Amino acid sequence: MTLSLFGQWIGNAEVFAGDGRFVGNGMDMRRVQRVDDCRTRVDVAFIGPFKVSGHYFIRDCGDHRIYEGPVNVGYAETLCEGVVDAHAYWPALGLSQRFLLAVLPDGDTQASLALMSRGDQLVYVVVGQNRRVVGEAGLPELVCGTSLDLADDPTAGRSVMLLHRRGVWQGELVTLDAQRRLIGRVAYCESFSADGRVAMTGGYFDPAHREFCLKTNGWQAWTMPDGEVAGSCGLAGGRASHGYFHHLPVQLRAWRREVVTLDGTRKVLLRHWYRGGERIGSEFGVLAFNPGG
Questions:
Q1: Which of 192, 198, 193, 189 is CA-nearest to residue 170?
Q2: What is the mean pLDDT of the segment spanning 102-131?
Q3: What gap in Å lies between CA 283 and CA 200, rounded to an integer?
Q4: C-alpha to C-alpha distance for 81 and 63, rounded to whole angstroms
Q5: pLDDT surpasses 80 at 136
Q6: Which of 9, 175, 184, 231 is an S-S bond match for 245, by CB 3.0 to 4.6 Å?
């Protein structure tokens, strides 16, 4: 466990149903403390549309971590310091979890995306942002409203799809091979236009300039025919997405997950790349938004 994750964290979580509709906010509190050189204890309390309280232990095994229970069991890949990609199970909830957690460059902010399933059925999507606190904790940032009203609003009260606004997301992606060994850092940008056109340039596994048209109903998005990228994703409040996209010219498939910060200025992007069923590598990074393009 890296030092960047130790301490007390508190924050706001937005909880969506599996179909992307808002069901409520959650208060997320965690205390992460070292037990010994290889083990960490996490005390967690989550109060929202579902609730859980308890603790679990994490065993650090270098390039991966094992969640040893009792309230969370599973396995997490360590992609780099402060970034983990986990497959876990919460026995008290009866829910499996695919979990992306990243500590942002300031070192005191976490962004996360949890896909909570029962079997293959997606039950909840939890979009989280926590901050490290010392002493008395302040109140988390919230978008005011009720689930009764916001369930029919794909932006969850923001009036804008943060992911798909007109503008450019730009930054660097850390690139790993199939064994999670570092390849390097590569520049990357993607732009969105008002008519749904998307352009991607950079990265390692498909660095060429690719363009396609993305159609959305607010809760899902999918590509139109004749583009260089084909696929679909689920959306959560316009802040997070998860899905698969086929990059046709190179015959590779990317499992893509992303989550935007509450202020809309940054997003965490993770892409696992596959050839058929074989994972050939991964890319991840924090991108900054420029509305001017």
A1: 189
A2: 95
A3: 14
A4: 10
A5: no
A6: 231
Stretch 182-192: mean pLDDT, rounded? 97
At 3, is the pLDDT very low, low, confident or very high (cuts 50, 70, 90)?
very low
Q: Are 239 and 251 in contact (CB under 8 A)?
A: no
Average pLDDT, the chain: 93
What's the per-residue H, E or C state across the chain?
A: CCHHHCEEEEEEEEEEECCCCEEEEEEEEEEEEECCCCEEEEEEEEECCCEEEEEEEEEECCCEEEEEEECCEEEEEEEECCEEEEEEEECCCCEEEEEEEEECCCCCEEEEEEEEEECCEEEEEEEEEEEEECCCCCCCCCCCCCHHHHCCCCCCCCCCCHHHCCEEEEEEEEEEECCCCEEEEEEEEEEECCCCEEEEEECCCCCCCEEEEEEECCCEEEECCCCCEEEEEEEECCCEEEEEEEEHHHCEEEEEEEEECCCCCEEEEEEEEEECCEEEEEEEEEEEEECCC
